[in-house]
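Fold it.
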Amino acid sequence: TISHPLGAQLFSNAVCGVSGDKYYISMKDGAGVWHLFVYDTSRGIWHREDNTRALAFANVRGDLVYVDGATNELISALGKSGTLEAGAVEWSATSGVMGYEMPDKKYVSRFNIRVLLADGATMSLEIQYDSNGEWIDCGTHTGNARTGTAMIPVVPRRCDHLQLRFTGTGDVKMYSIARIIEQGGDG
């Protein structure tokens, strides 16, 4: 295990990111103090950077950036990037595996996804059935200054299980993913 040099102390609320041969992890110790540790995979050593509380890490054009928990600012961990243009951040999120069939022949007939896309922001949606490795495009949505939240209906085909993958650019807030359940027939 690579965590042995960190000792027996327990940590929680860990968030991590990778850049090149370095693994960054921000986590809280038992006393509530935040730590940013970096593991250098080429040298096999850990070092503690500071008390940074990162809320999330992401790679942006070859630079590792994180959201600082104290200021909610986007910070470059490596100091490579200048100021990012508004809406320039690319992002993606993949759901966990969702079971499809329900007891008593009930099934998911539709997902209603409620999102708010900033002006010019984009969000694409893909779906994968039964872990077959094939992602099916369900369309792309672009925000404009006139619209508020959007309700995006997704009608999945019947299957054992599925996953949803969202990709996009810019500021997108996902408020909910609702499953609409229908009663199936005999047969």
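The mean pLDDT is 83.
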